[in-house]
Design brief:
The protein is α/β, with parallel strands linked by helices. The protein has helices at 12-25, 35-51, 95-110, 123-131, 155-159, 171-185, 201-206, 218-224, 265-278, 351-360; strands at 2-6, 55-62, 65-74, 79-86, 114-119, 135-139, 143-148, 190-193, 211-215, 235-237, 249-254, 279-290, 303-309, 312-319, 324-332, 339-347, 363-369, 383-390.
């Protein structure tokens, strides 16, 4: 059984040796490489990584013997695996897989994604990450950026998500929503980001608007497929801030606060840019989003009660430093005594910040209303529907 311990400056020589041996074993360090120069540069880097934050370097031990190096960065909105390197003599024993699964559990417990980069000349590592459920969300000139996210939408939750005729599935909600979206599509194709079970997409397609979607959760897509097949509403699996869907669209839309599911400002800006990549010139990006309820927070109390029904209580806890909210959903059984709890993390966005994100992606604000029916947006509006035009 492996163990981890924090690296110290006394470990620098070992960390360098295991890095060289692991790289050579993978065929990624040429025999003719300038080892003295490489060692000198690495020693400098390793000392800084151990002495400075926020990255943490650990020594991997097996039966009390150092056998590897692990670097992980922990931030408020994500965990990043910077690298695992193992001595060739202990590779193939499942140590790397076990470490990644531990990090996945930590990420799931915190409600944040686990990110990493994998070089394109390291196919063995890429196969491992694919097997462990990582999806590509970006790339640079050297490596692919992969992300693992705990899917809070289990099959059980996905099958109970729809509430036909009630709440956000009520006709008086969906009617104005789909009518406005059909008007904004102006006869063109529409792309829904985070399409879910097709709450909006199915009735919008019934209005004659060709709809495609992006969705991260396979269980949610399974529910959508009980209402519409792939030919009617094609869906691409992946991260809405990065995945590209073939073709161009006159409308991209993101409803019911879902942009806040992206937990960093960087991801939210990337979502705007991804929307822009899919639009024809002059196309529109529509976002439905709640206004942060910080005015409701009592002094010293970091939580608000959003809903208090006999069978359901919504409690939101705020981290105002990082603009994070965790929604705690308490659902009670019919007897009123037993409850199940699920949590959904969010990053809240002020309307002005949203407008700046839009500008960075080449959009201008065309309109903002308090709802889909065109009610005037005021300082007291709890949410808004914002329409951005690609310039």
């Amino acid at each position: 059984m492996h163990t981890l311990r924090p690296a110290t400056l006394d470990d620098v020589d070992f960390l360098l040796d295991v890095s060289i041996e692991a790289s050579r074993d993978q065929g990624r360090l040429p025999a003719a490489a300038d080892e003295p120069g490489w060692r000198e540069g690495y020693l400098d880097l390793a000392r800084r990584q151990i002495s400075d934050g926020p990255s943490t370097t650990s020594v991997i031990e097996l039966d009390g013997r150092p056998v590897g190096r692990l670097r992980v960065t922990r931030e408020a909105a994500r965990i990043e695996l910077n690298g695992i390197q193992l001595d060739p003599s202990v590779q193939g024993r499942g140590i790397g897989t076990a470490i990644i699964r531990q990090l996945q559990q930590e990420a799931a417990d915190r409600g944040v994604p686990l990110d990493l980069g994998v070089e394109r000349d390291n196919p063995n590592a890429r196969r491992l990450y694919d097997r462990l459920g990582f999806l590509q969300y970006a790339e640079d000139d050297r490596e692919d950026k992969l992300r693992w996210r705990h899917d809070i939408w289990t099959t059980e939750l996905a099958t109970t998500y729809d509430t036909p005729g009630v709440g956000m599935f009520a006709d008086d909600v969906l009617g104005p929503t789909t009518a406005r979206l059909a008007e904004l599509a102006a006869g063109g194709r529409a792309l829904e980001l985070a399409i879910g079970t097709g709450r909006v997409a199915v009735p919008l397609a019934a209005r004659g608007v060709p709809v495609s979607g992006i969705e991260l959760s396979p269980p949610m897509i399974e529910q959508l497929r009980t209402k519409a097949d792939e030919a009617t509403i094609p869906v691409t699996i992946g991260d809405m801030s990065a995945v590209r869907v073939p073709g161009e669209f006159s409308l991209v839309y993101l409803v019911f606060n879902t942009i806040s599911n992206l937990l960093t400002q960087e991801e939210q800006v990337a979502c705007f840019r991804n929307a822009a990549r899919h639009l024809t010139p002059g196309g529109r990006f529509v976002i439905e989003l709640w206004v942060p309820e910080l005015r409701r927070l009592p002094p010293g109390i970091p939580a608000t009660v959003g809903i208090a029904d006999p069978n359901y209580i919504l409690l939101d806890t705020y981290d105002v430093l990082n603009q994070h909210v965790v929604s705690h959903h308490f659902r009670f059984a019919d007897d009123g005594y037993e409850a199940t709890l699920s949590r959904t993390p969010h990053r809240y966005i002020w309307p002005a910040e949203l407008d700046l994100m839009a500008q960075l992606a080449g959009f201008t604000l065309e309109s903002r209303h308090a709802d889909w029916s065109g009610t005037e947006f005021t300082a007291d509006s709890p949410s808004h529907v914002s329409v951005y035009r690609l310039t």
